[in-house]
Amino acid sequence: MATQNLPPRDAIRRAAGELFVRDGYGATTVRAIAAAAGCDPALVIRHFGSKEGLFLAAVSVSGDLTGILTGPIESIGRELVRYVLDGAESPVAGVYRALLTASDRPEIKERLRASVHDVFVGPLAERIGGAYPELRARLAAAQFAGLINACWLVADPVLACAEREAVVALYGDAIQRLLTCEDPPTPGRPGDSNAGTGGPVG
């Protein structure tokens, strides 16, 4: 990794980002980061305070979904699925796996939650309208994350071998229904005579 000509802080951040993505959070040590950056381990702590602080500075949690989420709303579901299917070997998949290995740390978990809202839920909720816009956006985010886990983390062999456009259509349309359904169902138990009427739920 080319860090020789960078200021120490930038060299540390670049080295850390590459090591976290390659080896995961737990297997990456401050000493290894310092060696890759060509500095003393104490300098890493001086600049970033802790390994966790360095992780948050070095690994982006936002991804690159702006083009999809600001595009035609009627195609967002299928485009999100294509993003996942095309990205299993991409740098962003490595970043996602690194984030998962660190998500048990409270500060990192909170950053992930904030990022999901800022990058995905917030922009979608503003666009979809109708009843329960934020809830529907969060459920869409959960569906999206589930497919990412299956394809990028678990590497589900059935999904890997499935007909691509079948996955796009089936899963994409499931996400899309949350975003553009004209009349979301009213909460209620199955068979409740008030379900769908807006009446009280007993």
TrEMBL record:
Pfam families: TetR_C_16, TetR_N. Gene3D superfamilies: Tetracycline Repressor, domain 2. Residues 6-66 form the HTH tetR-type domain. It comes from the Bacteria. Residues 182-202 are annotated as: Disordered. Transmembrane segments: none annotated. GO terms for molecular function: DNA-binding transcription factor activity; transcription cis-regulatory region binding. Keywords: DNA-binding. This is TetR family transcriptional regulator. Residues 29-48 bind DNA.
